[in-house]
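Re: that backbone. Tokens:
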């Protein structure tokens, strides 16, 4: 019994190690997973690694092929559209429920601060890949904090089952400065609707926000193939003016 419990604990360590590297792009789509190397990296035996790989396959992160083993799942345009279609339905409902419950003063302050941190990146000319990665982390936190307020644990579990896959996808399909600006404007508009008590409007804005992200990735890939694709226009929000003292604090946090 103790041995099995230890294997499960070590498998969790291996699972988290591999998943993080898939989600942050260190293991790109199509990357072949080496059990030996993963065991060495995580300092566990191959048995926990196999358990972790099987779990990641079940969750859609990996694909197994006979005589080839595990590889990071390769997503097609159709996969992207399907995943984001599901996200739009689930996450818009979480926003609607969150708005109906109402946002506490503490949550409003936290969400406002996140939008300010994201703006700090958006308005930097020629921002770096590291700065875009920071933006995406703040973006994930913004979404998650709104959803966590919805009061429906079953819905949150369903959202969690799709949230990490798009996070991984965003590392494979890069976003331009203009697209980050559009994403930031959507966050501002969603937060404004929530704080105004317009739950249904906020849900519609979140749905459009996710559809726009889906279409941006579709456009990028289809342009590479030489075909045309439609982009969904985003409404722009007002720019948030951040005092110099707060900007210095945000910059210090982002460098930490």
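Recovered sequence:
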């Amino acid at each position: 019994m103790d041995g099995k419990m230890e294997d499960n604990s070590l498998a969790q360590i291996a699972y988290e190690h591999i998943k993080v590297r898939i989600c942050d792009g260190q293991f790109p789509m199509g990357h072949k997973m080496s059990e030996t190397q993963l065991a060495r990296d995580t300092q566990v035996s191959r048995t926990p690694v196999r358990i972790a790989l099987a779990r990641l396959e079940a969750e859609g992160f990996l694909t197994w092929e006979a005589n080839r083993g595990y590889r990071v799942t390769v997503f097609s345009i159709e996969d992207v559209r399907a995943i984001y279609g599901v996200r739009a339905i689930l996450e818009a409902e979480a926003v609607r429920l969150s708005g109906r419950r109402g946002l506490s003063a503490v949550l409003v302050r936290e969400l406002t601060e996140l939008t300010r941190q994201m703006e700090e990146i958006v308005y930097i000319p020629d921002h770096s890949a590291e700065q875009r990665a920071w933006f995406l982390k703040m973006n994930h936190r913004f979404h998650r904090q709104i959803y966590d307020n919805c009061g429906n644990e079953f819905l949150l579990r369903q959202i969690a089952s799709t949230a990490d896959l798009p996070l991984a996808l965003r590392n494979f399909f890069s976003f331009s400065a203009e697209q980050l600006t559009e994403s930031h404007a959507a966050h501002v508009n969603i937060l404004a609707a929530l704080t105004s008590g317009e739950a249904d409007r906020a849900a519609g804005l979140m749905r459009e926000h996710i559809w726009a992200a889906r279409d941006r990735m579709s456009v990028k890939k289809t342009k590479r193939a030489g075909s045309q694709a439609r982009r969904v226009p985003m409404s722009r929000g007002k720019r948030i003016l951040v005092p110099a003292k707060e900007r210095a604090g945000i910059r210090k946090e982002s460098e930490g």
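The chain has a mean pLDDT of 82. The chain has two domains: 2-72, 77-255.
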